[in-house]
Specification:
With 306 residues, the chain is of the alpha+beta class. It folds into two domains: 235 residues, Sandwich (Jelly Rolls), CATH 2.60.120; 52 residues.
Length: 306
């Protein structure tokens, strides 16, 4: 694999202007869906060399095994992944994506922070969220996500649909839903309103050996327009709203009750996580000279307030 044409399907390259138009006009935020994105042989080889679930990081934020596994050291996954990595870091590839999106001087992330291979099993979902907005070590602005799905067999009835939201705080349903089909690419901007996620995977018993596989690539820039720039933040998750069918007079079914319990459990887990994070920050402040000085200042402040 030598350059752009060895990776991206020639038909996709020939329709660059079409992708530009679609990206610029898409709602609820700028994005484009491109089928048959990779050269077919490359897509097949990526799936054939996809790492096993157990070889990735499948430990959740709570320290317990979960239904999602990721691998960010892609160069260790075999020749085709090394070739993929070689191409996506080239100026030729970065400029191609930049022309589609109108974002110039894109920067490749050699650390694959949050990216790489993603695999999700039955029961796993991803809450609506906006992504962290600065690279943790380099302070680059996060600008684009490029995801290629590697699922030959996927029924939309199984969930796992890539969902794009206008405002998950207000809307119970996404504005756009994208089935994660084989060699389908989604490129979307990342900003303060690019809310996205996927609904929980719910497969029939005889299909649970199948998982939702993808390769996720994230791109950055050294600068971004001032009107799009926000203070640094981590990934911002929003729990789902009540289903639209839940209205006064509606009789809940067993499925409804299970869904409501899941929504409550998600909120409880998020609150627990936030409290634990707050406790860790407070405990870190209390350590060392700076922490002790802060403690004394707080005591003076409290006494002054009295």
């Amino acid at each position: 694999m030598q350059g752009l044409r060895s990776l991206v399907n020639s038909d996709v390259l020939a329709r660059e202007h079409d992708w530009q138009t679609r990206f610029a006009s898409a709602q609820p935020f700028r994005h484009v869906i491109i089928d048959d994105f990779l050269v077919p042989e490359v897509a097949d080889a990526l799936l054939a060399s996809f790492p096993s679930f157990e070889s990735g990081n499948f430990i959740g934020d709570d320290g317990r095994p979960g239904g999602k596994s990721t691998v960010d050291r892609v160069r260790g996954l075999g020749e085709v992944y090394r070739q993929l990595d070689d191409v996506i870091k080239t100026r030729e590839f970065l400029d191609f994506v930049g022309r589609i999106t109108g974002i110039e001087q894109l920067i490749y992330d050699p650390f694959y922070l949050g990216g790489g291979t993603h695999e999700n099993r039955h029961g796993q979902g991803l809450q609506a969220h906006i992504d962290f907005n600065y690279h943790p070590s380099e302070r680059w602005h996060r600008r684009l996500n490029l995801i290629v799905y590697l699922n030959h067999e996927w029924d939309p009835a199984w969930g796992g649909m890539f969902d794009l939201y206008r405002d998950p705080y207000a809307d119970a349903s996404p504005q756009v839903r994208v089935p994660p089909l084989f060699n389908r690419c989604v490129i979307f901007e990342t900003n303060e309103k690019s809310w996205h996620g996927f609904d929980p995977i719910d497969q029939p018993e005889d299909k649970r050996h199948l998982s939702r596989k993808s390769v996720a690539l994230y791109f950055y820039s050294a600068e971004r327009p001032e009107q799009e720039t926000a203070g640094r933040h981590t990934t911002h998750y929003v729990n789902g709203q009540l289903p639209e069918r839940v209205q006064p007079g509606y009789t809940l079914s067993e499925v409804d009750v299970a869904q409501l319990r899941q929504l409550i459990a998600q909120r409880d887990a998020q609150l627990r996580s936030l409290y634990e994070e707050n406790s860790r920050l407070l405990q870190a402040q209390d350590k060392g000279i700076a922490g002790h000085m802060l403690y004394l200042l707080k005591r003076l402040y409290v006494r002054y307030r009295r």
